[in-house]
Each structure stands twice: as C-alpha cells, then as structure tokens.
Amino acid sequence: MVRIRDGLGTLLAAAGRRKYSVRHTGNCCRSAPECICDAGSRSRLRHVQGTRSTSLVSTPRLRGKDIRQPHPGLSSPRSTSLHRAQESTSPLDQDRRGAPFGLSENVNMRPCGMRSFQDYMFIPAQYEGWIGSGYVSTIVCAASPSEAIQALQADDSERVTASGVKDLVFAEWDLDAARKTDGLNTQLVGVIDLGGNNVLLVQQNSQYVAATGTYLEPLFRGRDIVSHSSLGSGERFVWWSNGQIVADFDPYHYDLEEAVAPKSVIDAARTIGGVGIDGPPPRNKGFPAVAGSFALADHLTQSRVSREVLATGIFGVVVVRTGPALPPAQPRTFESESSWAAVVDRYQKSYRLSRHGRASETTEGQVAEVRFWYRPLRSYLLEDEYGVRFVSDYRQNIWSRVDGVLVKDAPPMGLRVHPDSLVDLQKNWDVELSTLLAEETEGVAVEVGGRPAWQFDLPSGWQGLPSSVAFDSETGIALRRHTTFQTIEFIDLEVGTELPDELFTGE
Fold it and tell me: Quick one: which of 26, 203, 254, 402 has the most CB atoms within 10 Å?
C-alpha cells in the first residue's frame, strides 16, 4: 500500500482525472453488433429517429449533460439531468412519458454507449474472491472522493491505498497493523474517482456501509446513488435519487411482489442482459446477474467501472466506524527507557519504519551478507555481490535469481540470510514478546553497526534456542540476534527512508 503525504481525497481526484475520466463523444459503439448505431444499420437508425424514441440519438444521463435531441416531455436539453427534471416531476412520471435512458420500444437493440452484461463477465471471472466473499459496488454521482470520505465520517489518517480491488486485503492488513480496525465495529471502504464527477465505493467480506441508506444519507441531497451488492441477505440493486428510492430489487431474481423499479430500468436491464428480470439466470454461466448489475449501474450513471479501474486503480482505503469506539490506548510512560517494557513498546511502534542497509549472518565462522531494502509491511529487495538476489512486493509476489535471471514465483533456494528474521523478530516466539521478561528488566548497553542499543537475554522460542537480542535505543528496531550457533545483525542501517513501490519488482 502506498502511503501518501498529501490529502487522500485530493490525490485520488487528481488520479481519477488523469487516468479514468470518462469521455462521451456520442460516437457509435461499433464493437456491439446489437447496437442500433452498428455499421450497416444507418437506415434503421434514421427510422428510429423518426419515431417517438428520439433520445436514441444521444442517451440522456442522470446528471447534467446536454443532448442533441431532448427526450419527449422534457422542456429543454438542460432539463435532461434527472436532478433538474425532478424539480417538476419524478423519475416515475418520466417513465410514464417514455424511457428516459434512451431505450427504444424494441429492447433487443442497445442504444449508443449501452454495454451488454457480457462486457462485464470478466468481473466475476477475475474477481471471484471479491464477488464471492460478499461485495459492494456503489457509484455516487456529483461527488468527489473527499466529499464521500467526509460524508461517511471515515478515518483516512493512515493514507492507505490499494492498487486495484484485489489489494483491499493488503490494505486491511496494514490498517490492522496500525490498530485502526477492531474486528467488531469498523469497516473498510475503498474510494476512487471514476471521472465525470462520479465516485466509486467498494467493500468486501460482506461489509455493508457503502450499500446502506443510513450511512449514505449525508450524500443523498441532490445526488443519484446506484449500488449493487451480494451480502448475506442476498443480491441487491438499489438506486436512490435525492434520497428517494427509485429502484430496489434482487438482480438475480426480480420479484414482482417485492421489487420496485420503473419500466425504463426494467427495459434497460432486459436490454443489457444478465439480470434476472424474467427469471433467475443459470448459476453455471459465471454469475451473469453480477455482470448485468455492473453494466446497469454504469448505464444509469454514465460511468465506466473498467478493467483498469478494478485492476490498477488507486483506491483510498478508509475506516468507517459502525459502533462505539474502543477506549483510546493511553500512551505509556516508563521510569526507565532501558527497561524491557519501554524497549518492547518502541519495537512495536517501529513496524512503520522502512530500513536500508546490510544484513550479515555468521554461522560456524562462515559469513554471508546481503544489501537490503525493506518497505513495510512486506516489500523486500535483496542484493549480493552478483546483483539482485531476491524481490518481494506488498502483494506477496516473489522473484528469485535462477541462473543469473530473476524468475517469478521461484523459491529463494540457497539464500543464507534474510533480514526478515530481525524485522519480524516476534515470529521467533509463539507468545507475545512483552511477556518474555519482567517489565522492569534492564537492558545492557551495547553498540551494533555503529548504533547504540539495549541488549536482553531472552528465553527459548519455538525453535528451542535461547538468544540475546539488541534493540536500537532510539527506534526499538531489532539490530542483532545471537544464538549458540548463529548471529544475524544489521550494519550501516538507514531508517525511515522513502522507498517507492517501483523498487520492489522483478519485472
């Protein structure tokens, strides 16, 4: 996860404008054979333009976008925004006059820009973990990431981001490590600027705040919000406009008795396909209802949740509290800064610090050494006298040198020293580090690699080996560990250096 110094919402907005702004040119969607603007269909288009569905020439949108020919019943191109139309009429009234989304009476023909559910089948196929664990995808119109974060009363103080939705799990790990989550009354929301003044909110693991009206209510006024999800209660597609529910139904199986949706939405869903308007789609076809929900949401909001957005888009990951906060941890004070309790406290706080230097291991008189770069929480670059030896990134991809070439997923065979044994010192014991000694135990002053340190003799860990460990007196970082047959230590260590993600790749 990239940690950012500037405001998260500002950076996300800039990233969205740079990479994901949606441009609607009115050109024909020639990639869709069934589109009415398809090559070879110009005579059919002229025929349609002469009928009541004149809006097929340029599909009106939920927000203020001019069209070349106004839809019947709308007084001017400016009134094609759903928000403005609501000043004199409701979406349901619009539906009685004709489909406001550019649908012809033949719903088998897709208007320009309308995508089929098949264009989104890559989502359940490539993001099975996200979809299957209980996903939320919500598009908020006429909002910025900062506005969405503020309305959700979310905590973005850690400036944690995820590069694509698959990285949400790593963002969660980082926020857990920062003690921003409590596993009970907190949820994580990914936020990204889609361009066109639209914002996408995503969640995983059956978390629900971004699909729940009570949490979205501060965003309701003057906006359209389209959300779809698959949570414990089933699949749901809902559209709020200015706080009023326009559509609310199960996209897997449209229930005539319980569902709410104007005819225009039903027709759009039929045209797009995948959504179970006329009965549930077969489950063995790759979850077409999920793909249809993404297509329908994009159509209604004139957005584009693209492959690039889901794969590499930079999501700000924020924490939303759903219940009472835990009592804040009180900063501890110690009578002695060289006591075991004080040193462990500094060690536990050092997890955020990057490290760069040399790691040296001595075993039975044999010395092995690597230069290393470490970026919390999982990124390593190791280099020996022959060049780069091993790389791991925050997604836990690894590369090892084999016959002089870095090979992805190759295990680091023959790698004698790895700084992780000091960086993650805790893993050498199966109990909390703080419980190994009495809190008042005093350390012995030593020097390791030119840095002053406090050294303690610690009991055996799960490996059955007692050891002495020296901790940096300033930061608490473990600098050296010595057992009866092995010593590993850091030399020429630099702490807190900015290390970019691009450094940790073997590509």
Answer: 203
Q: Which residues of the chain have pLDDT under 50?
A: 1-108
Q: Return the closest-CA partner of residue 505 out of 395, 347, 393, 361.
A: 393
pLDDT of residue 110: 56
pTM of this structure: 0.65
Peptide bond into 377 cis (omega under 30): yes
Torsion of CA 229, 175, 18, 6, to 10 degrees: 140
Q: What is the DSSP string of 231-297?
A: ETTEEEEEEEETTEEEEEE-SSS--TTT-B--HHHHHHHHHH--S-TTSPPPGGGT-HHHHHHHHHH
Count of beta carbons in the 10 Å neighbourhood of residue 402: 12
Please answer whether residues 316 and 414 qualify as being in contact, where contact means their C-beta atoms are separated by less than 8 angstroms. Answer: no
Q: Residue 490, SS3?
A: strand
Unique residue bearing structure tokens 């770069």 = 373
pLDDT (0 to 100) of residue 464: 76
Q: Output the pLDDT for position 284.
A: 60
AA identity, residue 155: D
Beta bridge partners of 140: 199, 225
C-alpha angle with apex 154: 151 to 157, nearest 5 degrees? 130
What pLDDT, on a 0 to 100 scale, did the predictor assign at position 29? Answer: 31
End-to-end CA distance of the chain: 18
- Yes or no: say if 41 and 61 are a contact pair by the CB < 8 Å rule: no
Helices (H) and strands (E) in the chain, counts: 14, 19
What pLDDT is recorded for position 494? 96
Q: Which two tokens stand for residue 109?
A: 């023909």
Q: What is the pLDDT of residue 125?
A: 93
Which of 435, 446, 439 is CA-nearest to residue 470?
A: 446
CA trace torsion 143, 146, 151, 152 (10° rounding): 120
Q: What is the SS3 assignment for 24?
A: coil
